[in-house]
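To illustrate the input format used throughout this study, we show a single complete record. The first block contains the structure-token representation of the backbone; no residue identities are included at this stage. The design step must infer an amino acid for every position from geometry alone.
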């Protein structure tokens, strides 16, 4: 089972691929500022490359309120990514998750700061943290992927009952 965690921004995406026991890869996509439809098309093209590898894709939901313009850009990216996944991989399981939910489930604190998330990953999964380096978007994508691994494990346990 390969799980992909996706952390989105207005003009960027970070992806992390994990199987049940290993961190396989992490990648960051950033597009240059251009016309919005071109930015979204480029981001989605990059995401298509990786989504074909995943059995479960977990995408972080946009946070509303950082500012109207940035919230709207992240919402555009979120919608475009979901549409791309649905179009290219209609049978792949896709889950969306709020920031507070994955932080609570993975880190143990729904309002964990970026620093707390980074420190948690360094302590709990040091090899994963090394692959992410200092890139907070990759760190978040990895933690979102770990949330997906937890979901899969719980579903498997329930199926055994």
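Output of the design step:
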């Amino acid at each position: 089972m390969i799980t992909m965690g996706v952390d989105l921004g207005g003009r960027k995406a970070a992806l992390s691929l994990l199987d049940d026991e290993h961190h396989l890869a992490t990648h960051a996509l950033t597009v240059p500022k251009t016309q919005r439809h071109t930015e979204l098309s480029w981001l989605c093209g990059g995401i298509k490359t990786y989504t074909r590898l995943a059995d479960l894709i977990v995408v972080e939901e946009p946070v509303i309120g950082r500012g109207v313009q940035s919230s709207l850009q992240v919402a555009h990216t979120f919608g475009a990514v979901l549409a791309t996944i649905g179009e290219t991989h209609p049978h792949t399981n896709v889950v969306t998750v709020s920031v507070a939910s994955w932080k609570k489930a993975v880190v143990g604190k729904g309002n964990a700061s970026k620093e707390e998330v980074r420190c948690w990953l360094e302590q709990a999964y040091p090899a994963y943290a090394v692959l992410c380096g200092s890139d907070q978007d990759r760190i978040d994508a990895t933690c979102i992927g770990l949330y997906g691994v937890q979901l899969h494990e719980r579903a498997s346990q329930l199926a055994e009952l």
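Structural context for interpreting the output: Residues 148 and 154 are 10 Å apart (CA to CA). The chain has one domain: 3-160.
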